[in-house]
């Protein structure tokens, strides 16, 4: 199958219509699409994003800014209009920023339009012009639009504590191994995907076992990489980066609209958001929980409560594999 490696930049703004993304007319696709394109052999993904922004938007280097740390890496299949064949894409995602002056410059070109998530989902602009289906796919795969579940996939999610007692790890591995056996039987030929935010402890343990069982590892992250890295000790961070490299896809979830002002610890709302994402996109949730009711927002208990309320009580197909654990004191 044809393969394509490239970079995409999400240029966002807030207007009277709410959140909007910058899209540009793609003559080959005969539709609007995000800024970006094919990565040349000598380029890094960041250099590709910068070059494509420079060429497509006709802006000088000082008229736009791209955050150097990616917000995601995706793999997906789509039909290439240009090549007229099914293509496997590996795309690195970046966040871009435009000054007000730059926005005014690009808006003079009718090849550039600002589109809302709803328009992207519907596949056409307010004026009725086509938007590439791949644009919607990218937003769906990164939690920015509701995701259409794949029928040929069984997705396993994980939630659990970071500070698992090391003495119980061997026994946990045996029980998790048995659960993966059960999941393969339930899948009945379907592919196994594993959603893990790759936090220390439970997330990393289950991710390791999933990779050993040849699951497709997908890592939704609560923060951008540089922010998330601050939550790990040195050895945990090394493990996180190794698993991130071994994952087939990873992405940072979009900024939450809610604030953390009412929580005792900054960032709890983002942990709550990634917990909800894992539950919403899973058929089977692995939960490594100590059974303690702390009522912490964004913790394992909160994710389990959400799963019970929103999934288990509403779908006979959703399952929870609960593993009692002991935590370090």
Automatic annotation (TrEMBL):
Please list the residue ranges annotated as the Nudix hydrolase domain: 1-138
- Which InterPro entries does the entry link to? NUDIX_hydrolase-like_dom_sf, NUDIX_hydrolase_dom
Q: Where on the tree of life does the source sit, at the highest rank?
A: Bacteria
The molecule here is called Nudix hydrolase domain-containing protein
Write down the species. Answer: Rubinisphaera italica
């Amino acid at each position: 199958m044809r393969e394509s490696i490239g970079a995409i930049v999400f240029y966002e703004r807030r207007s009277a219509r709410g959140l909007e993304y910058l899209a540009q007319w793609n003559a080959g696709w005969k539709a609007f699409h995000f800024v970006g394109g094919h990565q040349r052999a000598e380029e890094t993904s960041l250099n590709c994003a910068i070059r494509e922004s420079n060429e497509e938007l006709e802006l000088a280097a000082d008229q736009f800014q791209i955050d150097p740390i990616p917000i995601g890496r995706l793999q997906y299949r789509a039909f290439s209009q240009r090549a007229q064949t099914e293509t496997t894409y590996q795309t690195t995602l970046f966040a871009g920023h435009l000054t007000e002056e730059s926005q005014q410059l690009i808006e003079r070109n009718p090849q550039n339009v600002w589109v809302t998530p709803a328009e992207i989902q519907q596949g056409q602009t307010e004026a009725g012009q086509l938007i590439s289906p791949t644009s919607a796919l990218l937003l769906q795969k990164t939690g920015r639009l509701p995701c259409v579940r794949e029928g040929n996939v069984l997705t396993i999610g994980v939630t659990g504590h970071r500070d698992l007692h090391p003495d119980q790890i061997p026994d946990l591995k045996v029980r998790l191994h048995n659960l993966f056996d059960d999941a393969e039987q339930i899948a009945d030929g379907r592919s196994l995907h594993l959603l893990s935010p790759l936090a220390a402890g439970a997330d990393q343990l289950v991710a390791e076992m999933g990779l050993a069982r040849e699951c497709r590892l997908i890592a939704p992250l609560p923060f951008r990489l540089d922010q998330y890295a601050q939550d790990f000790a040195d050895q945990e961070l090394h493990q996180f980066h190794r698993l991130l490299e071994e994952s087939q896809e990873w992405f940072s979830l979009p900024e939450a609209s809610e604030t953390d002002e009412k929580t005792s610890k900054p960032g709890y709302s983002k942990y709550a958001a990634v917990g909800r994402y894992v539950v919403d996109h899973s058929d089977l949730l692995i939960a490594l929980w100590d059974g303690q009711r702390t009522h912490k927002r964004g913790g394992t208990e909160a994710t389990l409560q959400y799963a019970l309320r929103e999934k288990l009580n509403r779908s006979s197909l959703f399952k929870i594999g609960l593993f009692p654990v002991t935590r370090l004191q």
